[in-house]
Amino acid sequence: MSFRDELGLRLNYRGGSKQQDRMIADKLWSLKSSINHSYQTVTIETPTKQRFRCLLNPDQLKMDYDCRILSIPYKAVDLNDTSRRKTSEGEVEVELKNGDIFTWIEDNSKWLLVLQYTNEVAYYRTKCKKCEAIAEVGDGYPVYVRGPVETTIDWYKSSNTSFNNLNYSLIIYITKNEETTEFFHRHKIVKIDGLPYEVQAIDWYGGDGIIEVCLDEYWSETIKEEAEKVEPVPEPQITTIQGEQEVDPYDTKTYTVKNPVAGAEWKLSNNKARIVKQTPTFTTVEILTGKSGEIELSYIKNDKVIDKVTIKINSI
After folding, report:
1. Strand 304-313 relative to strand 246-247: parallel, antiparallel, unpaired?
2. In angstroms, what CA-CA distances link 310 with 241, 242, 264?
3. Is 73 in contact with 123 (CB distance < 8 Å)?
4. 3-state SS of the chain: helix, strand, coil percent to 5?
5. pTM
6. What is the DSSP letter of 14?
7. Residue 93 in 3-state DSSP?
8. Does 73 sit behind a cis peptide bond, omega within 30 degrees of 0 on the bond before it?
9. Are 31 and 59 in contact, with CB atoms under 8 Å apart?
10. Over the Cα atoms of the chain, what is R_g?
């Protein structure tokens, strides 16, 4: 082998004949070496359930937010894929992009990818922000939250009534997809960690894959929410006792049984009602309360329950 051929092999091993290719290969080698030895190496899980080792370096750490730099090769070993070898031969494409949320396995925290460094071509390098709240959109989205940051409240007085304006400085970053795009619009009410907020402004172009939303503190409407709840329709009871299973307070109702048994009697489960009259064939029940609730009417003989039915008492 000539000196020229040997030099060509060495250059190709280091990344190629071009200097820039060798610089890219050197940076990638440096990253992989750091992942193996740095104390800032962490394990992450992507939205597609891939699990990788990577670097998560501090960028900005404040009382109200945590921002870090994620560095990972474009191809890496998926720790969840047991069918592949845990060497360079088993490397797969890393499926990450702006707007994705990954899980930091060691502390089970969620992080939102917000800004990729596109000038870095040797490996995937991006800025990510810690998600510290859940937006009740669909099945729930982890979101990065900033604010409120007001330190004073301006009070006003009108007709001997004092009041103040609501806090309006809450900002969230959320993944941009079809569901979130259709959900957010001005004056839409959204709950963040169970607290209601009204959408004031939406920045659709704040970054690829994310939506920046400015929210206004809103009133809790617990009475309205309770009124909008739809009560499930109970399944019909399988029983031979005939009569109304839903009654009003202070009603008097008669119940019969399809197959009467000689010597059988009727009993109630509590004192919300009383038996006015009974025979082995029927009974008359009087409701004694004005409050909602339930009673159980049993048809028994010799302390053995033959049949029973639950009667629901409506409220006044």
Report:
1. parallel
2. 10, 11, 19
3. yes
4. 15, 45, 40
5. 0.63
6. T
7. strand
8. no
9. no
10. 34
Tell me how many degrees the CA angle 134-140-143 measures, rounded to the nearest 5: 40
**53 neighbors 41 (Cβ within 8 angstroms):** yes
Q: Where do the structural domains in the chain lie, given as residue ranges?
A: 3-131, 141-228, 241-313
23: left (phi over 0), alpha (psi -120 to 50) or beta: alpha
How far is the C-alpha of 184 from the C-alpha of 173, rounded, in Å?
A: 12
pLDDT, greater one: 181 or 90: 181
Burial class (CB in 10 A: 0-12, 13-18, 19+), 313: buried
Q: For 50-109, write each residue's pLDDT tens digit.
A: 999 999 998 888 877 889 999 999 999 888 887 776 667 778 899 899 999 999 999 999
Paired tokens of 75: 């191809």
Rounded to whole angstroms, the Cα distance separating 285 from 273 reads 7
For residue 278, give both structure tokens. Answer: 């009974």
**What is the greatest pairwise CA distance in the chain?**
115
Q: Quickly name the fold that domain 241-313 has.
A: Immunoglobulin-like (2.60.40)
Q: What is the C-alpha separation between 96 and 77, in angstroms, rounded? A: 14
Of 146, 148, 145, 137, nearest to 176 by C-alpha is: 137
Provide DSSP, 290-307.
SS-EEEEEEEEETTEEEE
